[in-house]
Amino acid sequence: MSTRLAHVRSRLLRPGTSLLVIAIFLAIGWIFEGIAALAQSVMADRSVGARIFFIISGTISLVAGLVVALFPRDSLELLTRFGGILLVIIGIAEVIAAVMARRLTATR
């Protein structure tokens, strides 16, 4: 009994397996989002600009979902790096905004 429990625990707690599951859910979500946007662009009475936006958005989501589904590990690595870079940029922007706000209140 304990060996079976240890086997299940080792399967659930493996970071590689967990990350693969996250990548699969991300891919499924993007694929469904892309299909929904494409369906919305076809079915809804919208202006030409909105229709083009839904077509482009749906196509990008669908392609991104397929890429993540086909290359889950590489996609997660790229998304992690991209997200990290964005968080650093956002942090720098927040520090600059705080310094500017402090200067603005100090001069009043």
Radius of gyration, in Å, reads 22 Å
Instruction: Write down the overall geometry.
Output: flat
Q: What share of residues is helical?
A: over 70%
Q: Report the span from N to C terminus.
A: 72 Å
- What class, by secondary structure content? mainly alpha
Number of helices: 4
Query: What's the assembly state of these chains?
Result: single chain
Q: Give the strand tally.
A: 0
Order of helices and strands: HHHH
- Low-pLDDT segments, ≥5 res: none
Largest β-sheet summary: none
- Mean pLDDT comes to 86
Q: Approximately what portion of the residues adopt beta-strand conformation? A: under 5%
Structure description:
With 108 residues, the protein is mainly α. It is 91% helix and 0% strand. The protein contains 4 helices and no strands. It has helices spanning 2-12, 15-43, 48-70, 72-106. α2 (15-43) packs antiparallel against α3 and α2 (15-43) crosses α4. The radius of gyration is 22 Å and the shape is flat.
